Amino acid sequence: MPTTFVIIGAGQAGGWAAVTLRQSGFDGRILLIGEETWRPYERPPLSKAVLTADPEPSVLYFHPEARYAELGVELMLGVPAEAVDPDAHTLRMADGRVVTYDKLLLTTGGHARRLPVSGSDRALRLRTLEDARAIRARLGSARHVLCIGAGVIGLEIASAACARGCAVTVLEALPRAMGRAVSPEGAAFIAGLHRAAGVTLHFDVAVERLDAASDGGTVVTCSDGQTFAADLVVAGVGMQRNLTLAEAAGLALEGGIVVDEWGRTSAPDVFAAGDVAAFFHPLLGRRLRLESWRHAQNHGIAVARAMCGDAPPYDDLPWFWTDQHGVNLQVAGLPADAAHTIVREGGPPNGFVAVHLAEDGSVLGVTAANNPREIRAGQALIKSRKAPEIGKLADAAVPLQRLM
Ligand SMILES: Cc1cc2nc3c(=O)[nH]c(=O)nc-3n(C[C@H](O)[C@H](O)[C@H](O)COP(=O)(O)OP(=O)(O)OC[C@H]3O[C@@H](n4cnc5c(N)ncnc54)[C@H](O)[C@@H]3O)c2cc1C
User: Which domains does the chain have, with CATH numbers?
Assistant: First the structure.
């Protein structure tokens, strides 16, 4: 029997891990198991071009089918794994097949959280290609779209619906947009973009129920008695990690599967990576759970290398982007942990750069609109742990790169 490494979850982290295992010299059997019927594909276009472009763009796969064959990676798609037994080193598929592994990697990601209110099935959700296609089809005829949740996904759908000529309303339970992903200043910038595009935003409203309207649409009722009618309702109320397998297998969990800097879980020979993992970040000194493209890829690669016994600790900085109303916003580091935020004044119109500082003045995060150069420099500043001069930080005429 060849040594067998199994990956459960054929998403971004799993796809990159499978390829990396072989590239790192592992010459045994590699099995990539996924419940979706597609081989690993990009999700970011699902809330962007897949909703707006005509014709619908082709699916963006991470690797061509032939690449898996060439590397000898077996794909087992369209069937979920149902149970893992870490002591026996086996897993059971939903169709009854039993697979024995030497090392197992869990990259089960997450699914779109269901709104916990009556009538929530009337709201579409977005995580998979099928979800995006269902929303796209409905956007073709919708006049009024209501997005529940002003997180990244809800706001990207709002932006796409706006681009498709729909009247758009967003309802958010919190007092601001994009939760803890951006600072209050960043949230205000994003809200401004939406308002300028004609989107109506309501904050501090809790959705209580969804009902069928007489015209075939939906009426959304909030706890303060306000009602909103729409042809299409979409809920972007967060991602829930797929932890069922890990929980039943007795792995340590902290809102995600607890792993160390090498992706090792609390069970021997079981690893986890990507959105599903709660990993310890050596530079930032705490455990993180991220939901972002770069992390899914780099963590999948790093943990695959660790499974092959050759990897430094994973310390990639958090980074994500979002595209809304033609503006590309990028966030590096952890704005939510900052004690102070400095908005750099004097930049280009419709631009925005903010630097987020720790109590000691060191840079914890950078947020920038249409300015990838400042984000690149910002990441180097975060890693340097230096405290730049405040006056220069506040002046957009001084590139962040010069402050290093
Ligand atoms: C609509 C959308 C837009 C996004 N846009 C951006 C963006 O603009 N910028 C950015 O930085 N990030 C973005 N992201 C986030 C990024 O795409 C995710 O962080 C990334 O896809 C996570 O990859 P993953 O492999 O960890 O998990 P996933 O992509 O969730 O993949 C996990 C896979 O595991 C499968 N699985 C789960 N349980 C089982 C099981 N028991 N058996 C078999 N298979 C199983 C799932 O079906 C899924 O295919 C976006 C995400 C979405 C959904």
Answer: 4-49+60-109+242-307 (3.50.50.60), 113-238 (3.50.50.60), 326-403 (3.30.390.30)
User: Would you call 404 helix, strand, or coil by DSSP?
Assistant: coil
In contact, 74 and 32? CB cutoff 8 Å: yes
Give the pLDDT means over successive 10-residue stretches in the chain (404 positions).
94 98 97 98 98 96 97 98 98 98 98 97 98 96 97 98 98 94 94 97 98 96 97 97 98 98 98 98 92 98 95 95 96 93 81 94 95 94 92 90 87
Residue 24 in tokens: 């790192």
Q: Is the pTM of this model over 0.90?
A: yes
Ligand 1 pocket, CB under 6 A: 8-14, 33-36, 43-44, 46-47, 80-81, 107-110, 126-127, 153, 242, 245, 274-276, 291-293, 296, 320-322
Q: Can you tell me which atom of ligand 1 is nearest the CA of 239?
A: 53
Consecutive H or E run containing 378: helix 372-384
